[in-house]
Amino acid sequence: MKISPIPVTVGIIYFINFLSIIITIYVERKKPLTATVWILVLTLIPVLGFLLYFTFGRNLRPNQKRIFKLKGDYDALYNKWLIEEKYLLKNDDKVFNDKNMLMYKDIIEMNINSSRSIYSQDNDVDIFTDGKSKYDSLLRDIENSKETINILYFIIKNDDIGKKLVDALTKKAKEGVKVRVLYDHIGSFHTPSRMFNKLRKAGGKVTRFFPVSFGTYCRINYRNHRKIVIIDGTIGYVGGINIGDEYMSRGKSKKLRPWRDTHLRVVGTAVAFLQERFLMDWYYAAKDESINEDSMLKKFFSNKGGKGNIGMQVVASGPDSSGEQIKMGYIKMINSAKDRVYIQTPYFIPDDSFLEAIKISAMSGVDVRVMIPLKPDKKFVYYATTSYIRDLLEYGIKVYLYKGFLHSKTIAIDGKVASIGTANMDIRSFSLDFEINVFIYNTEFSKGCMKIFEEDMVNSEVMTIERYKSRGIIAKILEGFSRLFSPLL
Questions:
Q1: What Cα–Cα distance (Å) separates residue 430 from each residue in 86, 318, 350, 377, 424?
Q2: Taking the mean position of all CA atoms in its chain, how far away is CA 385?
Q3: Cα–chain-centroid distance for residue 407?
Q4: Which of 16, 130, 234, 344 has its CA at a distance of 20 to 30 angstroms from the CA of residue 83?
Protein backbone atom coordinates (compact mmCIF):
# COMPACT_ATOMS: atom_id res chain seq x y z
CA MET A 1 0.00 0.00 0.00
CA LYS A 2 1.35 3.36 -1.05
CA ILE A 3 1.53 6.12 1.51
CA SER A 4 0.49 9.49 0.18
CA PRO A 5 3.33 12.03 0.49
CA ILE A 6 0.86 14.79 1.38
CA PRO A 7 0.00 13.59 4.94
CA VAL A 8 3.70 12.88 5.56
CA THR A 9 4.64 16.41 4.45
CA VAL A 10 1.89 17.93 6.57
CA GLY A 11 3.04 15.89 9.54
CA ILE A 12 6.63 17.08 9.10
CA ILE A 13 5.48 20.70 8.86
CA TYR A 14 3.43 20.46 12.03
CA PHE A 15 6.28 18.67 13.82
CA ILE A 16 8.69 21.49 12.88
CA ASN A 17 6.14 24.08 14.01
CA PHE A 18 5.67 22.19 17.27
CA LEU A 19 9.43 22.28 17.87
CA SER A 20 9.40 26.01 17.10
CA ILE A 21 6.68 26.51 19.69
CA ILE A 22 8.68 24.55 22.28
CA ILE A 23 11.75 26.68 21.50
CA THR A 24 9.68 29.88 21.80
CA ILE A 25 8.34 28.92 25.22
CA TYR A 26 11.20 27.08 26.89
CA VAL A 27 14.43 28.05 25.14
CA GLU A 28 14.11 31.64 23.91
CA ARG A 29 11.76 32.57 26.77
CA LYS A 30 10.08 35.43 24.99
CA LYS A 31 7.70 37.79 26.72
CA PRO A 32 4.29 36.15 27.24
CA LEU A 33 2.43 38.40 24.77
CA THR A 34 5.07 37.97 22.06
CA ALA A 35 5.22 34.22 22.64
CA THR A 36 1.41 33.97 22.42
CA VAL A 37 1.34 35.76 19.07
CA TRP A 38 4.06 33.49 17.66
CA ILE A 39 2.22 30.41 18.87
CA LEU A 40 -0.92 31.62 17.07
CA VAL A 41 1.07 32.29 13.89
CA LEU A 42 2.77 28.88 13.97
CA THR A 43 -0.50 27.09 14.71
CA LEU A 44 -2.87 28.86 12.30
CA ILE A 45 -0.58 29.30 9.27
CA PRO A 46 1.95 26.46 9.55
CA VAL A 47 4.12 26.92 6.44
CA LEU A 48 4.05 30.71 6.23
CA GLY A 49 4.17 30.92 10.02
CA PHE A 50 7.39 28.90 10.18
CA LEU A 51 9.00 31.04 7.46
CA LEU A 52 8.01 34.19 9.36
CA TYR A 53 9.34 32.77 12.62
CA PHE A 54 12.55 31.62 10.91
CA THR A 55 13.10 35.14 9.59
CA PHE A 56 11.73 37.40 12.33
CA GLY A 57 11.18 35.37 15.47
CA ARG A 58 14.39 33.88 16.78
CA ASN A 59 16.77 35.37 19.27
CA LEU A 60 20.38 36.38 18.65
CA ARG A 61 22.67 33.66 17.35
CA PRO A 62 25.64 32.61 19.53
CA ASN A 63 28.15 34.47 17.33
CA GLN A 64 25.98 37.61 17.52
CA LYS A 65 26.02 37.42 21.32
CA ARG A 66 29.69 38.42 21.19
CA ILE A 67 28.36 41.95 21.45
CA PHE A 68 27.24 41.17 25.03
CA LYS A 69 30.83 40.38 26.02
CA LEU A 70 32.12 43.56 24.42
CA LYS A 71 29.60 45.61 26.36
CA GLY A 72 30.56 43.87 29.61
CA ASP A 73 34.26 44.50 29.00
CA TYR A 74 33.60 48.18 28.44
CA ASP A 75 31.29 48.55 31.44
CA ALA A 76 34.07 47.40 33.73
CA LEU A 77 36.38 50.17 32.52
CA TYR A 78 34.49 53.21 33.68
CA ASN A 79 32.77 52.23 36.92
CA LYS A 80 34.75 54.91 38.73
CA TRP A 81 33.11 57.56 36.54
CA LEU A 82 29.69 56.13 37.27
CA ILE A 83 30.18 55.77 41.02
CA GLU A 84 31.31 59.37 41.33
CA GLU A 85 28.32 60.62 39.34
CA LYS A 86 25.81 58.64 41.43
CA TYR A 87 27.43 59.91 44.63
CA LEU A 88 27.13 63.54 43.56
CA LEU A 89 23.46 63.19 42.69
CA LYS A 90 22.51 61.22 45.79
CA ASN A 91 24.14 63.73 48.11
CA ASP A 92 22.74 66.81 46.34
CA ASP A 93 26.25 67.97 45.49
CA LYS A 94 25.53 68.37 41.81
CA VAL A 95 25.25 72.03 40.86
CA PHE A 96 22.86 72.34 37.94
CA ASN A 97 23.44 75.05 35.36
CA ASP A 98 19.66 75.22 35.01
CA LYS A 99 18.09 75.36 38.48
CA ASN A 100 14.82 74.02 37.06
CA MET A 101 16.51 70.63 36.71
CA LEU A 102 16.40 70.07 40.47
CA MET A 103 12.77 69.05 39.90
CA TYR A 104 13.82 66.43 37.34
CA LYS A 105 17.04 65.04 38.76
CA ASP A 106 15.21 61.76 39.40
CA ILE A 107 15.13 61.26 35.60
CA ILE A 108 18.90 61.75 35.51
CA GLU A 109 19.45 59.28 38.34
CA MET A 110 17.12 56.73 36.75
CA ASN A 111 19.09 56.91 33.48
CA ILE A 112 22.35 56.49 35.40
CA ASN A 113 21.03 53.40 37.17
CA SER A 114 19.32 51.85 34.14
CA SER A 115 21.85 52.54 31.42
CA ARG A 116 25.05 53.74 33.13
CA SER A 117 24.61 57.09 31.44
CA ILE A 118 26.87 59.87 32.69
CA TYR A 119 25.32 63.34 33.02
CA SER A 120 27.29 66.24 31.52
CA GLN A 121 26.24 69.87 31.24
CA ASP A 122 28.87 71.61 29.14
CA ASN A 123 27.17 70.90 25.81
CA ASP A 124 26.04 73.08 22.90
CA VAL A 125 23.20 71.70 20.77
CA ASP A 126 21.87 72.71 17.37
CA ILE A 127 18.57 71.24 16.22
CA PHE A 128 17.61 70.48 12.61
CA THR A 129 14.03 69.87 11.48
CA ASP A 130 14.79 68.96 7.87
CA GLY A 131 17.34 66.89 6.02
CA LYS A 132 18.89 69.63 3.90
CA SER A 133 20.06 71.78 6.80
CA LYS A 134 21.44 68.70 8.57
CA TYR A 135 23.29 67.50 5.48
CA ASP A 136 24.73 70.96 4.79
CA SER A 137 26.08 71.14 8.34
CA LEU A 138 27.39 67.57 8.28
CA LEU A 139 29.23 67.98 4.97
CA ARG A 140 30.74 71.24 6.22
CA ASP A 141 32.02 69.55 9.40
CA ILE A 142 33.41 66.64 7.37
CA GLU A 143 35.24 69.09 5.12
CA ASN A 144 36.82 70.72 8.19
CA SER A 145 37.80 67.45 9.91
CA LYS A 146 41.43 66.84 10.82
CA GLU A 147 41.77 63.42 12.48
CA THR A 148 38.79 61.02 12.58
CA ILE A 149 35.33 60.58 11.10
CA ASN A 150 33.12 57.82 12.55
CA ILE A 151 29.76 57.24 10.87
CA LEU A 152 26.93 54.82 11.69
CA TYR A 153 23.59 54.87 9.86
CA PHE A 154 20.69 52.48 9.56
CA ILE A 155 20.20 53.64 5.96
CA ILE A 156 22.76 54.95 3.51
CA LYS A 157 21.24 55.21 0.04
CA ASN A 158 23.03 55.19 -3.28
CA ASP A 159 21.43 58.47 -4.35
CA ASP A 160 22.52 62.08 -4.68
CA ILE A 161 23.15 62.78 -0.99
CA GLY A 162 24.64 59.33 -0.45
CA LYS A 163 27.14 59.90 -3.26
CA LYS A 164 27.98 63.37 -1.94
CA LEU A 165 28.71 61.86 1.47
CA VAL A 166 30.97 59.15 0.04
CA ASP A 167 32.79 61.71 -2.12
CA ALA A 168 33.37 63.93 0.92
CA LEU A 169 34.63 61.00 3.00
CA THR A 170 36.90 59.79 0.19
CA LYS A 171 38.46 63.24 -0.08
CA LYS A 172 39.22 63.31 3.65
CA ALA A 173 40.57 59.75 3.62
CA LYS A 174 43.02 60.76 0.88
CA GLU A 175 44.12 63.63 3.14
CA GLY A 176 44.96 61.16 5.91
CA VAL A 177 41.82 61.44 8.05
CA LYS A 178 40.85 58.08 9.61
CA VAL A 179 37.39 57.30 8.24
CA ARG A 180 35.10 54.52 9.49
CA VAL A 181 31.64 53.83 8.06
CA LEU A 182 29.25 51.30 9.60
CA TYR A 183 25.79 50.68 8.16
CA ASP A 184 23.01 48.21 8.83
CA HIS A 185 22.67 45.53 6.17
CA ILE A 186 18.87 45.34 6.19
CA GLY A 187 18.32 49.09 6.45
CA SER A 188 20.69 49.57 3.49
CA PHE A 189 19.79 46.31 1.76
CA HIS A 190 19.56 47.89 -1.70
CA THR A 191 22.81 49.82 -1.29
CA PRO A 192 25.55 48.14 -3.36
CA SER A 193 28.86 47.52 -1.65
CA ARG A 194 30.65 48.94 -4.69
CA MET A 195 29.27 52.36 -3.70
CA PHE A 196 32.11 52.53 -1.15
CA ASN A 197 34.91 51.16 -3.38
CA LYS A 198 36.64 54.50 -3.90
CA LEU A 199 36.44 55.23 -0.17
CA ARG A 200 38.04 51.87 0.63
CA LYS A 201 40.70 52.49 -2.00
CA ALA A 202 41.48 55.82 -0.32
CA GLY A 203 42.05 54.05 3.01
CA GLY A 204 38.60 54.36 4.58
CA LYS A 205 37.09 51.39 6.39
CA VAL A 206 33.52 50.28 5.64
CA THR A 207 31.58 47.40 7.18
CA ARG A 208 28.01 46.15 7.65
CA PHE A 209 26.22 45.43 10.91
CA PHE A 210 24.71 41.92 11.24
CA PRO A 211 25.10 41.00 7.55
CA VAL A 212 22.26 38.81 6.36
CA SER A 213 22.32 35.89 3.97
CA PHE A 214 20.78 32.44 3.76
CA GLY A 215 23.95 31.14 5.35
CA THR A 216 23.31 33.36 8.37
CA TYR A 217 19.75 32.07 8.66
CA CYS A 218 18.09 35.05 7.01
CA ARG A 219 17.41 36.77 10.33
CA ILE A 220 16.34 40.34 9.86
CA ASN A 221 15.57 41.23 13.47
CA TYR A 222 17.97 43.02 15.82
CA ARG A 223 18.89 45.77 13.41
CA ASN A 224 21.17 48.68 14.18
CA HIS A 225 18.72 51.56 13.90
CA ARG A 226 21.18 54.13 15.28
CA LYS A 227 22.30 57.26 13.40
CA ILE A 228 25.56 58.56 14.83
CA VAL A 229 28.38 60.69 13.43
CA ILE A 230 31.45 61.77 15.44
CA ILE A 231 34.03 64.07 13.89
CA ASP A 232 37.46 64.52 15.50
CA GLY A 233 35.94 63.32 18.77
CA THR A 234 34.48 66.79 19.36
CA ILE A 235 31.39 67.10 17.13
CA GLY A 236 28.51 64.63 17.24
CA TYR A 237 25.33 64.10 15.27
CA VAL A 238 22.38 62.00 16.42
CA GLY A 239 18.68 61.84 15.59
CA GLY A 240 16.20 60.46 13.09
CA ILE A 241 17.68 61.50 9.74
CA ASN A 242 19.44 58.77 7.72
CA ILE A 243 21.33 59.33 4.47
CA GLY A 244 18.80 59.55 1.63
CA ASP A 245 17.22 62.12 -0.66
CA GLU A 246 13.73 61.51 0.77
CA TYR A 247 14.83 62.93 4.14
CA MET A 248 14.85 66.38 2.62
CA SER A 249 11.49 68.06 3.11
CA ARG A 250 11.14 68.44 -0.64
CA GLY A 251 12.80 65.15 -1.50
CA LYS A 252 12.08 62.84 -4.40
CA SER A 253 9.43 60.77 -2.62
CA LYS A 254 6.36 62.75 -3.70
CA LYS A 255 3.86 60.56 -1.86
CA LEU A 256 5.52 61.34 1.49
CA ARG A 257 6.07 65.08 1.09
CA PRO A 258 6.67 67.01 3.19
CA TRP A 259 9.08 64.85 5.19
CA ARG A 260 9.54 66.12 8.76
CA ASP A 261 12.35 64.87 10.93
CA THR A 262 14.51 65.94 13.86
CA HIS A 263 18.29 65.69 14.25
CA LEU A 264 20.92 67.21 16.55
CA ARG A 265 24.47 68.51 16.31
CA VAL A 266 26.24 68.29 19.67
CA VAL A 267 29.51 69.77 20.93
CA GLY A 268 30.64 68.94 24.45
CA THR A 269 31.33 66.04 26.78
CA ALA A 270 28.24 64.15 25.57
CA VAL A 271 30.05 63.57 22.27
CA ALA A 272 32.42 61.19 24.07
CA PHE A 273 29.49 58.92 24.84
CA LEU A 274 28.27 58.99 21.24
CA GLN A 275 31.83 57.98 20.35
CA GLU A 276 31.66 55.19 22.92
CA ARG A 277 28.54 53.72 21.39
CA PHE A 278 29.88 53.94 17.85
CA LEU A 279 33.13 52.20 18.79
CA MET A 280 31.28 49.46 20.66
CA ASP A 281 29.26 48.68 17.54
CA TRP A 282 32.31 49.04 15.31
CA TYR A 283 34.43 46.64 17.38
CA TYR A 284 31.69 44.05 17.10
CA ALA A 285 31.00 44.46 13.37
CA ALA A 286 34.55 44.98 12.08
CA LYS A 287 36.14 42.26 14.24
CA ASP A 288 39.54 43.85 13.73
CA GLU A 289 40.12 45.57 17.05
CA SER A 290 39.94 44.46 20.66
CA ILE A 291 38.63 46.31 23.66
CA ASN A 292 41.21 47.18 26.29
CA GLU A 293 41.66 49.95 28.79
CA ASP A 294 43.90 52.05 26.56
CA SER A 295 41.69 51.85 23.48
CA MET A 296 38.49 52.49 25.39
CA LEU A 297 39.43 55.24 27.81
CA LYS A 298 41.69 57.16 25.44
CA LYS A 299 39.22 57.06 22.57
CA PHE A 300 36.05 57.52 24.58
CA PHE A 301 37.19 60.14 27.03
CA SER A 302 39.75 62.11 25.04
CA ASN A 303 37.07 64.75 24.50
CA LYS A 304 38.13 67.89 26.35
CA GLY A 305 34.59 68.98 27.01
CA GLY A 306 32.65 71.92 25.70
CA LYS A 307 31.86 75.51 26.51
CA GLY A 308 28.07 75.18 26.48
CA ASN A 309 25.65 74.96 29.38
CA ILE A 310 23.16 72.29 28.30
CA GLY A 311 22.78 69.16 30.43
CA MET A 312 22.66 65.86 28.54
CA GLN A 313 22.70 62.11 28.90
CA VAL A 314 23.30 59.64 26.08
CA VAL A 315 21.16 56.52 26.50
CA ALA A 316 21.52 53.43 24.33
CA SER A 317 19.37 50.32 24.32
CA GLY A 318 19.16 47.12 22.37
CA PRO A 319 19.33 43.33 22.50
CA ASP A 320 22.84 43.57 24.00
CA SER A 321 21.33 44.62 27.34
CA SER A 322 18.75 43.12 29.65
CA GLY A 323 16.67 46.28 30.05
CA GLU A 324 14.71 48.57 27.75
CA GLN A 325 16.58 51.67 28.80
CA ILE A 326 15.21 54.22 26.35
CA LYS A 327 11.65 53.09 26.99
CA MET A 328 12.23 53.40 30.73
CA GLY A 329 13.59 56.91 30.16
CA TYR A 330 10.49 57.82 28.14
CA ILE A 331 8.17 56.48 30.83
CA LYS A 332 10.07 58.25 33.60
CA MET A 333 9.75 61.54 31.69
CA ILE A 334 6.02 61.00 31.24
CA ASN A 335 5.59 60.14 34.93
CA SER A 336 7.60 63.23 35.94
CA ALA A 337 5.61 65.68 33.79
CA LYS A 338 3.61 68.27 35.71
CA ASP A 339 2.09 70.28 32.88
CA ARG A 340 2.60 69.00 29.29
CA VAL A 341 3.82 65.95 27.38
CA TYR A 342 4.39 66.35 23.63
CA ILE A 343 5.23 63.21 21.63
CA GLN A 344 6.18 62.88 17.96
CA THR A 345 6.71 59.48 16.39
CA PRO A 346 6.21 57.87 12.97
CA TYR A 347 5.07 54.60 14.56
CA PHE A 348 3.00 54.44 17.72
CA ILE A 349 2.77 50.78 18.76
CA PRO A 350 3.30 50.94 22.53
CA ASP A 351 3.53 48.10 24.96
CA ASP A 352 1.21 48.07 27.98
CA SER A 353 3.63 49.91 30.28
CA PHE A 354 4.11 52.85 27.90
CA LEU A 355 0.42 53.11 27.08
CA GLU A 356 -0.58 53.02 30.73
CA ALA A 357 1.99 55.72 31.55
CA ILE A 358 0.53 58.26 29.12
CA LYS A 359 -3.03 57.37 30.16
CA ILE A 360 -2.17 57.94 33.82
CA SER A 361 -0.46 61.22 32.94
CA ALA A 362 -3.53 62.42 31.04
CA MET A 363 -5.84 61.40 33.91
CA SER A 364 -3.60 63.38 36.26
CA GLY A 365 -4.41 66.61 34.43
CA VAL A 366 -1.31 66.72 32.21
CA ASP A 367 -1.84 68.00 28.65
CA VAL A 368 -0.71 64.98 26.61
CA ARG A 369 -0.42 65.35 22.84
CA VAL A 370 0.69 62.71 20.33
CA MET A 371 1.57 63.50 16.70
CA ILE A 372 1.84 60.79 14.03
CA PRO A 373 1.99 61.00 10.21
CA LEU A 374 -1.04 61.39 8.00
CA LYS A 375 0.87 59.72 5.14
CA PRO A 376 2.20 56.23 5.94
CA ASP A 377 5.42 54.73 4.63
CA LYS A 378 4.53 51.20 5.78
CA LYS A 379 0.79 50.59 5.58
CA PHE A 380 0.62 47.45 7.71
CA VAL A 381 2.57 49.15 10.52
CA TYR A 382 0.50 52.31 10.06
CA TYR A 383 -2.75 50.40 10.59
CA ALA A 384 -1.31 49.05 13.83
CA THR A 385 -0.45 52.64 14.80
CA THR A 386 -3.93 54.03 14.06
CA SER A 387 -5.51 51.17 16.00
CA TYR A 388 -4.25 52.84 19.19
CA ILE A 389 -5.84 56.22 18.47
CA ARG A 390 -9.07 55.33 20.26
CA ASP A 391 -7.08 54.30 23.35
CA LEU A 392 -5.63 57.81 23.41
CA LEU A 393 -8.76 59.81 22.63
CA GLU A 394 -10.81 58.06 25.30
CA TYR A 395 -8.39 59.37 27.93
CA GLY A 396 -8.42 62.95 26.67
CA ILE A 397 -5.10 62.69 24.85
CA LYS A 398 -4.97 64.95 21.81
CA VAL A 399 -3.95 63.25 18.56
CA TYR A 400 -2.57 65.13 15.54
CA LEU A 401 -1.98 63.77 12.03
CA TYR A 402 0.91 65.57 10.35
CA LYS A 403 0.13 66.37 6.71
CA GLY A 404 3.10 64.51 5.29
CA PHE A 405 5.44 61.91 6.71
CA LEU A 406 6.59 62.60 10.27
CA HIS A 407 9.79 60.67 11.05
CA SER A 408 10.75 62.64 14.16
CA LYS A 409 11.20 60.72 17.43
CA THR A 410 10.87 63.25 20.25
CA ILE A 411 9.34 63.67 23.69
CA ALA A 412 9.31 67.02 25.50
CA ILE A 413 7.82 67.68 28.94
CA ASP A 414 6.91 70.90 30.72
CA GLY A 415 9.29 72.96 28.57
CA LYS A 416 12.09 71.59 30.76
CA VAL A 417 13.28 68.15 29.56
CA ALA A 418 13.37 66.61 26.08
CA SER A 419 14.52 63.37 24.47
CA ILE A 420 15.49 63.14 20.80
CA GLY A 421 17.05 60.22 18.99
CA THR A 422 16.42 57.12 16.93
CA ALA A 423 13.88 55.21 19.05
CA ASN A 424 10.27 55.18 17.89
CA MET A 425 7.45 54.69 20.37
CA ASP A 426 6.98 51.08 19.40
CA ILE A 427 7.81 47.61 20.64
CA ARG A 428 10.48 47.07 17.98
CA SER A 429 12.49 50.11 19.08
CA PHE A 430 11.95 49.30 22.75
CA SER A 431 13.27 45.73 22.64
CA LEU A 432 14.38 44.44 19.22
CA ASP A 433 16.57 47.11 17.62
CA PHE A 434 19.78 48.87 18.66
CA GLU A 435 18.81 52.49 19.38
CA ILE A 436 20.31 55.66 20.84
CA ASN A 437 18.69 58.80 22.31
CA VAL A 438 19.91 61.89 24.07
CA PHE A 439 18.03 63.22 27.08
CA ILE A 440 18.38 66.99 27.29
CA TYR A 441 17.92 68.98 30.50
CA ASN A 442 17.59 72.65 29.64
CA THR A 443 14.61 74.99 29.84
CA GLU A 444 15.41 77.08 26.78
CA PHE A 445 16.09 74.08 24.54
CA SER A 446 13.03 72.14 25.72
CA LYS A 447 10.77 75.15 25.21
CA GLY A 448 12.14 75.29 21.68
CA CYS A 449 11.18 71.64 21.14
CA MET A 450 7.64 72.33 22.32
CA LYS A 451 7.45 75.36 20.04
CA ILE A 452 8.47 73.18 17.08
CA PHE A 453 5.69 70.75 18.00
CA GLU A 454 3.16 73.59 18.13
CA GLU A 455 4.36 74.86 14.74
CA ASP A 456 3.86 71.35 13.33
CA MET A 457 0.31 71.40 14.69
CA VAL A 458 -0.47 74.12 12.12
CA ASN A 459 0.38 71.59 9.39
CA SER A 460 -1.62 68.81 11.04
CA GLU A 461 -5.18 67.55 11.20
CA VAL A 462 -6.81 67.04 14.59
CA MET A 463 -8.25 63.59 15.14
CA THR A 464 -11.56 63.49 17.02
CA ILE A 465 -13.43 60.52 18.39
CA GLU A 466 -16.26 61.19 15.92
CA ARG A 467 -13.85 61.16 12.98
CA TYR A 468 -12.17 58.03 14.23
CA LYS A 469 -15.46 56.17 14.60
CA SER A 470 -16.49 57.15 11.07
CA ARG A 471 -13.62 55.32 9.37
CA GLY A 472 -14.61 52.54 6.98
CA ILE A 473 -15.11 48.87 7.77
CA ILE A 474 -12.02 47.89 5.76
CA ALA A 475 -9.87 50.19 7.86
CA LYS A 476 -11.32 48.72 11.05
CA ILE A 477 -10.60 45.16 9.90
CA LEU A 478 -7.04 46.01 8.87
CA GLU A 479 -6.42 47.83 12.15
CA GLY A 480 -7.63 44.86 14.17
CA PHE A 481 -5.53 42.42 12.15
CA SER A 482 -2.42 44.61 12.32
CA ARG A 483 -2.79 45.22 16.04
CA LEU A 484 -2.91 41.48 16.65
CA PHE A 485 0.63 41.28 15.28
CA SER A 486 1.87 44.49 16.95
CA PRO A 487 4.25 42.65 19.33
CA LEU A 488 6.10 41.39 16.23
CA LEU A 489 6.28 44.67 14.29
A1: 25, 8, 9, 20, 8
A2: 17
A3: 11
A4: 234
Domain carrying residue 361: 325-488
How many residues in total does the chain contain? Answer: 489
Q: How far apart are CA 208 and CA 194, in angstroms?
A: 13
**Distance, CA of 43 to CA of 37 (rounded, Å):** 10
| Pair (330, 300) in one structural domain | no
Q: Could you tell me the pTM of the whole model?
A: 0.85
- pLDDT(134) > 80: yes
Burial of 15 (0-12, 13-18, 19+ CB in 10 A): exposed
pLDDT tens sequence across 454-475? 999 999 999 999 998 888 888 8
Number of domains present in the structure of the chain: 3
User: Coil, strand or helix: which one is 441?
Assistant: strand
- E-strand stretches of 280-366: 310-317, 340-344, 348-349
DSSP symbol at 225:
-
- Give the residue numbers marked as catalytic: 225, 227, 232, 407, 409, 414
Residue 315 belongs to a domain: no
Q: How many CA atoms lie within 13 A of 461 on its CB side?
A: 11
Render 356-410 in DSSP notation, one character per residue: HHHHHHHHTT-EEEEEEESS-SSHHHHHHHHTTHHHHHTTT-EEEEESSEE---E
Q: Are 408 and 348 in contact (CB under 8 A)?
A: no
